TrEMBL record:
Family (UniProt): Belongs to the zinc-containing alcohol dehydrogenase family. Quinone oxidoreductase subfamily.
Protein name: Zinc-type alcohol dehydrogenase-like protein
GO molecular function, one term: zinc ion binding
Occurrences of domain Enoyl reductase (ER) (ranges): 16-331
Entry-linked InterPro entries: ADH-like_N, ADH_Zn_typ-1, ER, GroES-like_sf, Lipid_raft_assoc_Zn_ADH, NAD(P)-bd_dom_sf, Quin_OxRdtase/zeta-crystal_CS
SMART domains found in the cross-reference section: PKS_ER (SM00829)
Organism for this UniProt entry: Salicibibacter halophilus
Keyword Protease included in the entry's annotation: no
Keywords, in A-Z order: Metal-binding, Oxidoreductase, Zinc
Length: 334
C-alpha cells in the first residue's frame, strides 16, 4: 500500500524528510481494526516526531495521528465496531501513524465519525478534542454542567491553534468566561469566532491585560516563556495545565502561596501505557461526535492541503513549523 514515511531526521526543506513509500498492508488481529484512511490531519507532534529519535531498522517511520476513515477489517476481539463503520481517532504515538492507505488502530481509542461532517472535517478533530477534553474535564476536574462553573474563568494560551480552537468551544459549553491569547488580527478574529469572550496578547504581561485573576490556565504554547506570567495571573487555588514540555527547571514556589496546582496533559498517555481506562477515549470521541451532530461544536478545519503524499505533507509540516497556523490542516485520500 502507499504511505508517506521517513528514514532519518531531516529538516523539512530536504525532499528526503518525508518520502512516498510502499509498505505492506496491515492485518487486523485482537482488538485492532484495519481502517481505510480517507483523511488525515497534521499536528505539531508530527513535526516533533519527524525530528526526534531516528526510526532505526529498514522500515520507514510513518507519522499521522488524526484519522477519519472506514473500518475494512476487524480483529477477533473487536466488539465496538463492524466492517463498514465510519470512524475517527488519533491513534497511538508508539505505533505507526495514519499517513497511509490503511491503518491499524485499537478499537478502544476510536470513535464513531460525526454524521454531519465529511471525512476531512472529521479528521481535524480527534487529537485536539481528546487533548482539550482531558485537560478541562479530567486534569482541571471541571464539570460539564455550566451552572457548576458560573463565575469561573479560563485563560487559553494559543487560542487560535488546533487545540485552542476546540478548547475555546468546550470551555464555553461548560459555562466558563473564556479569555484567549492571540497576537495577530486574523488569530484574534478566529479566537472570537470560536467563542472566546476576550483576547489578550501573549507577548505582553498577562496580568495587566486581565480584569483580575483567572481560575484556570490552559497553556498550549511555550511553558518556559509563560511560566512567571501564568503564576502571576492565576487566582488562589487555581489550576494550570500545559501540553508543552519545559526545557527549563521552574520554581514551583510561584504557586505555593496561592495553593495552586499544575499538571501536564498528554493525550497519548492512555494508549502508550495501555491504561485500565484506555476505553475512555472511545467514549470521549463518541460524546464529542454527538456534540458535533447537535451543532454544539464545529470542526476546526481551515486548510484542505490536497491528497496525502510526501510533497503535500512536507508543505503542511513547513506551515506547522512556522508557528502561525490557524485551526487544522487536513489531507485526503481518494
Amino acid at each position: 500500500m502507499k504511505a508517506v514515511g521517513f528514514y532519518e531526521n531531516l529538516p523539512i526543506t530536504d525532499e528526503k524528510s518525508l518520502q512516498d513509500v510502499e509498505v505492506e498492508k496491515p492485518k487486523a488481529t485482537g482488538k485492532d481494526m484495519a481502517v481505510r484512511v480517507r483523511a488525515i490531519s497534521v499536528n505539531p507532534v508530527d513535526t516533533k516526531q519527524r525530528l526526534g529519535n531516528p526510526p532505526g531498522g529498514t522500515e520507514p517511520k510513518i507519522l499521522g495521528w488524526d484519522v477519519a476513515g472506514v473500518v475494512e477489517e476487524v480483529g477477533n476481539d473487536v466488539e465496538l465496531f463492524s466492517v463498514g463503520d465510519e470512524v475517527f481517532y488519533a491513534g497511538s504515538v508508539t505505533r505507526q501513524g495514519g499517513n497511509s492507505d490503511y491503518h491499524l488502530v485499537d478499537e478502544r481509542i476510536v470513535g464513531k465519525k460525526p454524521e454531519r461532517l465529511d471525512f476531512a472535517e472529521a479528521a481535524a478533530l480527534p487529537l485536539t478534542t481528546i487533548t482539550a477534553w482531558e485537560a478541562l474535564f479530567e486534569r482541571m476536574h471541571l464539570s460539564m454542567d455550566p451552572s457548576a462553573n458560573k463565575g469561573k474563568s479560563i485563560l487559553i494560551i494559543g487560542a487560535a491553534g488546533g487545540v485552542g480552537s476546540i478548547a475555546v468551544q468546550l470551555a464555553k459549553l461548560a459555562g466558563l468566561y473564556v479569555i484567549g491569547t492571540a497576537s495577530r488580527k486574523e488569530t484574534v478574529k478566529w479566537a472570537r469566532d470560536t467563542g472566546a469572550d476576550k483576547t489578550i496578547n501573549h507577548y505582553e504581561p498577562f496580568r495587566q491585560q486581565l480584569e483580575g485573576n483567572v481560575d484556570y490556565i490552559f497553556c498550549l504554547n511555550n511553558t518556559d516563556q509563560h511560566w512567571e506570567n501564568m503564576g502571576e495571573a492565576l487566582a488562589p487555588q487555581g489550576h494550570i495545565v500545559s501540553i508543552v514540555e519545559a526545557a527549563e527547571n521552574h520554581d514551583l514556589n510561584v504557586l505555593k502561596n496561592k495553593s495552586a496546582s499544575f499538571s501536564y496533559e498528554f493525550m497519548f498517555t492512555r494508549s502508550m501505557f495501555e491504561t485500565d481506562d484506555m476505553i475512555e477515549q472511545h467514549h470521549l470521541l463518541n460524546e464529542a461526535g454527538k456534540m458535533v451532530d447537535e451543532g454544539k461544536i464545529r470542526t476546526t478545519l481551515t486548510d484542505r492541503g490536497g491528497p496525502v503524499n510526501a510533497e503535500n505533507l512536507r508543505a503542511a509540516h513547513e506551515k506547522i513549523e512556522s508557528g502561525k497556523t490557524i485551526g487544522k490542516i487536513v489531507l485526503e485520500n481518494n
